[in-house]
Amino acid sequence: MELWLSYEAYLFMGGQKKLANIQKMDLITHLNLIADMGDMEVIDMAALVGQTMKEHGA
What we know:
Layout: E1 3-7, E2 22-26, H1 27-38, H2 45-55
Antiparallel strand pairs: 1-2
């Protein structure tokens, strides 16, 4: 499991930049939560670049 440090609550949701507000969380869970909030998609950038390079013969 990859861990990530993040503010709890998120800064864009009104959280404050204080050391006491930083929490460890699972990176994948964090990214999926952010994606769900903003109608975004979490992608594997390395796989995307590799696939693009294969498709274009690079």
